[in-house]
Amino acid sequence: MTTIGIFGAAGRMGRAIAQAATDAGLGIAGGTDRDPAGEIAPGIAMTADPLALAEASAVLIDFSVPGALSAHLDACIAARKPVLIGTTGLEAVHHALIDEAAVHIAVLQTGNTSLGVNLLAALVEQAAAGLGDDWDIEIVEMHHRHKVDAPSGTALLLGEAAARGRGIALAQHSERGRDGITGARAKGAIGFAALRGGSVAGDHQVIFAAEGERIEIGHRAENRTIFARGAVKAARWLVGQPAGRYDMKGVLGL
Ligand SMILES: NC(=O)C1=CN([C@@H]2O[C@H](COP(=O)(O)OP(=O)(O)OC[C@H]3O[C@@H](n4cnc5c(N)ncnc54)[C@H](OP(=O)(O)O)[C@@H]3O)[C@@H](O)[C@H]2O)C=CC1
Ligand SMILES: O=C(O)C1=N[C@H](C(=O)O)C[C@H](O)C1
């Protein structure tokens, strides 16, 4: 039986993943959290030691915080175990750590584990490729009041898809956090706007706006179960994969 270890196990996603893994008939080796006192569910042991967890698991799932990424990757490399990174708010330094880890082990990093969002990303890439840069691209997301990072990992994933479709680098063409006298929109820019409130699990809308017409495509997550199910599916897929960096396309057959 595949046994999963969960970094950030006491969090909203950690708990949802424990439930999804149990529903899928998988074993749970245990979990870590910032304060690992106690259990996340009956029979699921918490530890403060990422390496001990990695050694006890067939595959690891990390939905915690960017600051813990380095220690989690080190543990997975030392134990030679594959890992899924679902944590968002990652910066260039974190992506460099993931690239380095992927030389030694299989690492899947994604801002969204759901089938719907990954299919949306494929559609966005196709639309951006077909429409050309006189169509302005804006990405709007809304999440619950507890979310700490913006734009969401999913908004950035969709932005990357749009940039790929256009054959440009997102980093050089994104407009984020507009406020005050911003000046006119740059031609070819990909804009981001983030809303926060209530209990919204995750809404994303991609708007293609031209003179006189607009195309809007989007996705609404009704709860976290879709992310948790996707994470468990990806973890199963990762077991036995050779070292390398992966995203959800291989898992979902997109
Ligand atoms: N890729 C995807 O599909 C999805 C990604 N996410 C992302 O997953 C992450 C977690 O989301 P969510 O569960 O809602 O957030 P939570 O804040 O509920 O969970 C994060 C957990 O990680 C814990 N933590 C903090 N530091 C460490 C550490 N050093 N080691 C282990 N655990 C630690 C936190 O503890 P404490 O609270 O005590 O600090 C908390 O329990 C976010 O980045 C979110 O954006 C969310 C949904 C889907
Ligand atoms: O923090 C969340 O809740 C979510 N985070 C991910 C993101 O940043 O895109 C995925 C999902 O939208 C929920």
From TrEMBL:
GO biological process, one term: diaminopimelate biosynthetic process
GO molecular function: 4-hydroxy-tetrahydrodipicolinate reductase; NAD binding; NADP binding; oxidoreductase activity, acting on CH or CH2 groups, NAD or NADP as acceptor
Pfam families in the record: DapB_C, DapB_N
Active-site residues, as the UniProt record annotates them: H143 (proton donor/acceptor), K147 (proton donor)
Subcellular location(s) per record: Cytoplasm
Keyword annotations from UniProtKB, A to Z: Amino-acid biosynthesis, Cytoplasm, Diaminopimelate biosynthesis, Lysine biosynthesis, NAD, NADP, Oxidoreductase
Residue stretches making up the Dihydrodipicolinate reductase N-terminal domain: 3-112
Residues noted as binding (S)-2,3,4,5-tetrahydrodipicolinate in the record, renumbered to the chain: H144, G153, T154
Main location: cytoplasm
Pathway terms, separated by semicolons: Amino-acid biosynthesis; L-lysine biosynthesis via DAP pathway; (S)-tetrahydrodipicolinate from L-aspartate: step 4/4
Binding-site list for NADP(+): R34
InterPro entries (UniProt xref): DapB_C, DapB_N, DapB_N_CS, DHDPR_bac, NAD(P)-bd_dom_sf
Catalytic activity as recorded in UniProt: (S)-2,3,4,5-tetrahydrodipicolinate + NAD(+) + H2O = (2S,4S)-4-hydroxy-2,3,4,5-tetrahydrodipicolinate + NADH + H(+); (S)-2,3,4,5-tetrahydrodipicolinate + NADP(+) + H2O = (2S,4S)-4-hydroxy-2,3,4,5-tetrahydrodipicolinate + NADPH + H(+)
Domain Dihydrodipicolinate reductase C-terminal stretches: 116-252
Binding annotation for NAD(+): G8, A9, A10, G11, R12, M13, D33, G86, T87, T88, T110, G111, N112, T113
Gene Ontology annotations for the cellular component aspect, listed alphabetically: cytosol
Enzyme Commission identifier(s): 1.17.1.8
Quaternary structure and interacting proteins, as annotated: Homotetramer.
PANTHER family: 4-HYDROXY-TETRAHYDRODIPICOLINATE REDUCTASE 1, CHLOROPLASTIC-RELATED (PTHR20836:SF0), DIHYDRODIPICOLINATE REDUCTASE (PTHR20836)
Biological function: Catalyzes the conversion of 4-hydroxy-tetrahydrodipicolinate (HTPA) to tetrahydrodipicolinate.
HAMAP family: DapB
Family that this chain belongs to: Belongs to the DapB family.
Protein name listed in UniProt: 4-hydroxy-tetrahydrodipicolinate reductase
Natural source organism: Sphingobium cupriresistens LL01
